[in-house]
Amino acid sequence: MKVHTYERAFMALGGVLLVLCMAALVYATVAMGIHLPGRAGEIEPGKVFTTPPFDNPGVHQTGPNQYDVVIIGQAWRFHPTEIRVPVGAELNFIATTFDVIHGFHIEGTRVNMMLIPGQISRLTYRFRKPGEYLIICHEYCGAGHHNMYGKIIVE
Ligand code: CUA
């Protein structure tokens, strides 16, 4: 069977595009450090409030300048709604939800996670400047979605 010249050219083009896409993906994940927040474990949605560390949401010191920040998302609020953290500290955000998919984004930062029932999301961040930061749910989660926000006070 003879393959037409144009057909051959398009097949080659397809191959080139595939390689470029793979290269862009590798560049984004490896070189730029962009990745999905780690799926750091699984949790039974019905037992979130009784499973450590989610049985005690909030800020917990784990080292000299290190804190776990445990958050639960729920329609339509975060637990806790307001947290205080020291400026410059290493914050390990550990979050989940038990009802529907929520977002966890801290305005003006790269902190951006998806909260999925049954999964634990983790992300580490350090605030360089003191101030008040808004936490918003940026995944549509129903009628009260726009009321789902919290506050981080960095001091
Ligand atoms: Cu929770 Cu939108």
Q: Summarize the helix and strand pattern as letters.
A: HEEEEEEEEEEE
Helix count equals 1
What would the CATH topology of the largest domain be? Immunoglobulin-like
Low-pLDDT sequence parts: none
| Rough outline | elongated
Percent strand = 35-45%
Name of the top-level CATH class of the largest domain = Mainly Beta
Structural descriptors:
alpha+beta; Immunoglobulin-like; binds dinuclear copper ion; elongated; 1 helix; 155 residues; 2 domains; 11 strands
Overview of the structural elements:
By secondary structure, this protein is of the alpha+beta class. The chain folds into 2 domains: 1-33; 36-152, Sandwich (Immunoglobulin-like). The chain contains 1 helix and 11 strands. Strands 1, 2, 3, 4, 6 and 9 form a 6-stranded mixed sheet that branches. The protein binds dinuclear copper ion. Dinuclear copper ion is lined by residues 76, 102, 137, 139-141, 145, 148.
List the helices and strands and how they pair.
Blueprint: H1 5-31, E1 38-42, E2 58-63, E3 66-74, E4 77-79, E5 82-85, E6 90-97, E7 102-106, E8 112-115, E9 119-125, E10 131-136, E11 149-154
Parallel strand pairs: 3-6, 5-11
Antiparallel strand pairs: 1-9, 2-3, 3-4, 6-9, 7-8, 7-10, 10-11
The structure holds dinuclear copper ion.
Quick take:
By secondary structure, the protein is an alpha+beta fold. It contains 1 helix and 11 strands; from the N terminus they run αβββββββββββ.
